[in-house]
Amino acid sequence: MATRQRGRPRSFDRDTALEKALRTFWEHGYETTSIADLTRAMGIAAPSLYAAFGDKKTLFEEVVEVYVHRYGGFIGRALAEEPTARGAVGRVLREAAVEYTEPGRPPGCLVINAAVNAAPASAEVAEALRAMREENVRAFASRIRAGVAAGELPEDTDVSALARFTAAVLQGMSQQARDGAGRGELEAVADAAMRAWPGA
Amino acid sequence: MATRQRGRPRSFDRDTALEKALRTFWEHGYETTSIADLTRAMGIAAPSLYAAFGDKKTLFEEVVEVYVHRYGGFIGRALAEEPTARGAVGRVLREAAVEYTEPGRPPGCLVINAAVNAAPASAEVAEALRAMREENVRAFASRIRAGVAAGELPEDTDVSALARFTAAVLQGMSQQARDGAGRGELEAVADAAMRAWPGA
DNA sequence: CGCTTTCTTGAGCGAGCGCTATAGAATCGG
DNA sequence: CCGATTCTATAGCGCTCGCTCAAGAAAGCG
């Protein structure tokens, strides 16, 4: 069919505007980004924003979806592609040092930092990000457990402790990045963390 | 002298009200705590708050001062009292696991978590907390450097990397605590972190 | 008892919040 | 061209924000 669109066409590019919103939320967080901040960054007026993206919470949810796909994929790739658990987690941390300090982007991780301070009205958003962080812990644990099963790591390895430690380091690196730490400093943190692994 | 106070006496206890404000800021953060939240928690009306504590930013500064003295002292004590750098940092992390999950308190650390998401209007407050975190990194580095000088740690120890790693773990532990991690889980993170030390 | 001083209370300021009603502009099918 | 449709732009809704004015209450001093 390809029935042509009726009515007045949209005067802005939806993906471009969404990316602008993403950057704004990434830099300032969910609650501290106002609709006025968004419309300014996106170059559109409020009614256009609401027509194209729904309300603030819905827009943020779409932003998170895009963020995870476009900027958070390195974690899943490292865990899936590296042959050893140690290599996988080491690559996650070292790549995080790069990702979190990439020039031309807000520093740190949106999922980690965008809803740390949330009023009760934003509890759902904060909880959604918290669940994603918890899911990361589970992914680390799953990969480490596979490493134990494969004989790569000792049988008595405390899998969940190592997974939670990895997540804590990642979160610490993200805040350090926001506090101004550079790529080299974060890489040193990542290397230090890997020395905590069994048989280092 | 002891000139008695003239005029109507204050109807609330200043220290008690300040502690209530401290808990509220600790739990919800600087920007996401409103004056209405504070007056409700402190049990006083807005003009009384402003007369006794100044504006919101000034009140927060006093809250931070009390917080550091009352709840943040364990870091300085551990660094000063332990005979070795390794023992000092290990004690900081293990005590943090306890402090950050103490029942009857908001989880995590106010200095680490209260101003992660800050609008430009609160930039000064966010920067003040950032400076305190940076000061912590320097304190860790100083103690570790002393350990190297004392021959406790190898000459080629990367002092600033180990210091920044410690700070990152501490910050990660604080966020994990806010995300619901228990004392035991955080202690496991602390123990894991200490295995990253030279000669572990 | 006044008089002064200090605090409390209630009301409300201007500004910004998330969000939307309304009217006009731009494109379609016919 | 006409009407239907879908977007944009202005303006403003009710609400909350940080903060303060004005009036009254409670204390000490003479």
From TrEMBL, chains A, B:
Residues 34-53 bind DNA. Keywords: DNA-binding, Transcription, Transcription regulation. It comes from the Bacteria. The keyword DNA-binding applies. Pfam families: TetR_C_13, TetR_N. Residues 11-71 form the HTH tetR-type domain. PROSITE patterns: HTH_TETR_1, HTH_TETR_2. The keyword Transcription regulation applies. This is TetR/AcrR family transcriptional regulator. It comes from Streptomyces macrosporus. The lineage of its organism: Bacteria, Bacillati, Actinomycetota, Actinomycetes, Kitasatosporales.
